[in-house]
Amino acid sequence: MILWAGSILYLKRVVNQPTAVRAETDSAIEISCRGVWKVFGQHPHRVIDTLNERQSRQATLRSTGHVIAVRDASFEVRKGETFVVMGLSGSGKSTLVRCMCRLTEPTRGAIVIGDRDIVTLDEAELRQLRRRRMSMVFQHFGLFAHRRVIDNVAYGLEVQGMARRSRLARAQDMIELVGLSGWEQHYPNQLSGGMQQRVGLARALTVDPDILLFDEPFSALDPLIRRELRSELVKLQQTMHKTIVFITHDFAEALELGERIAIMRDGQFVQIGSPEQLITAPADDYVSAFTRDVSRLTVLTVSSIMRDCEQVGQAVSSDESGTVLPAGTRLADALPALVERETPVLVANHDNNVVGCVDRAALVEALVANTSARSPNGRAESPAT
């Protein structure tokens, strides 16, 4: 099936809509975690060897006095991907990301970045990794109170030995990138919390790392500032294409930022998937409890509800506007096209090839589908259960 000229024009109008479908995916793996464990206690390796799959964290603590913070975590992060690890307090997500940069030493497992297992690096090699390839942004800003903003931002390049003029020029570029122009000569205590976190982000970006690790960086900020910074990070990532691992306990934040989301509970991964996959096919009641209040209109895309055009059984819309929806169009953005037409609308991939059709019936079915876990009394289960 060939798209007509009007279809191409419509594609150009809506291609900038938020999308959960990557137009171009670099399949190279940037980070590979394989069987990562972190056990706190006097004899962690002995405890790991005696565990069985069904033994809970609480049971292990009672019987051994050891805390299993991360349990056999295995996952991969593609180059340029934003991978979100989400869970409640105490789920092990922050310990995991600290293991990934070896601020916390993993008890067992491999953490491969590129072609090197960083667990095997010595102190000098680890310092070089942190200085040149990986940057970290944490909830607590960690800025130098006695240094001005521009010197805080340039600190990583100073440690690398870059000449002052060059590093300040680079720092100035990053300050402008995060929207802090005019604040270069101020001290951190003269800035709001949101502005201080922007300084922390600029400092992380200044060394031009391949990998950015975020450990709940916006958690201490007011809700409005959090939303603003999330939006800014999304915009920055669209131009930077960094490999990002982002830790959060906020599911709305995970949905906005993550191309894929891993949900943790008691140190283990419960499910890894795209936002659409978590909402349409939650692995268990725990995941369902997080997703039950999410508006499907703002998360699901037309690709998740489309059908084969031949199976729709109706004439496909071919009016003068030639309406075609990119596969990554959110349902909220597709509403006008679907509501005003009796016939199905074409769906095209990033190569402008028709991959399916979507109609009102599919939209209604998606919106009324109830994937929330239900308890015997008819109420959705809490994540704490």
Question: Assembly state here?
Answer: single chain
Q: What's the CATH superfamily of the largest domain, by name?
A: P-loop containing nucleotide triphosphate hydrolases
Helix-and-strand structural type:
alpha/beta
Distance between the termini: 50 Å
- Number of domains as seen in the coordinates: 2
Mean pLDDT level: 83
Rg, Å, rounded? 24 Å
Query: Main sheet, how many strands, which sense, barrel?
Result: 6 strands, mixed
Name the helix and strand elements from N-terminus to C-terminus, one letter apiece.
HEHHEEHEEHEHHHHEHEHEEHHHHEHEEH
Shape category: globular
Helix tally equals 17
Helix content range: 25-40%
> Biggest sheet: strands side by side, in what order?
6-7-8-3-9-10
Low-confidence stretches: 1-26, 317-321, 370-385
Q: How is the CATH topology of the largest domain named?
A: Rossmann fold
Q: What proportion of the residues form beta strands (DSSP E)? A: 15-25%
What is the CATH architecture descriptor of the largest domain?
Answer: 3-Layer(aba) Sandwich
Query: Care to count the β-strands?
Result: 13
Question: What's this, in brief?
Answer:
The protein folds into two domains: 77-105 and 121-294, P-loop containing nucleotide triphosphate hydrolases (Rossmann fold, 3-Layer(aba) Sandwich), CATH 3.40.50; 295-385, CBS domain Like, CATH 3.90.1280.
